[in-house]
Amino acid sequence: MADHVYKILELVGSSSKSSDDAIQTAIARAAKTLKNLDWFEVVETRGHLKDGKILHYQVTLRIGFRLE
To answer: Could you state, in chain order, the average pLDDT of each consecutive group of 10 residues for the chain (68 residues)?
Structure first.
């Protein structure tokens, strides 16, 4: 296994469906412009409430991508 160097990017994904969907949204968007995405880490989860119901999820995550 070769030694790797990673850059870490922090993103916030959002979704009205679920926190998992918010994660998928952020990763899918990052994958459109970045190469070598290797891992992610959820840093924070929060949401927007109205009348006791969840309206929106927001997930802050760090994505690691390997530098060439």
So the answer is: 87 97 97 95 97 96 94
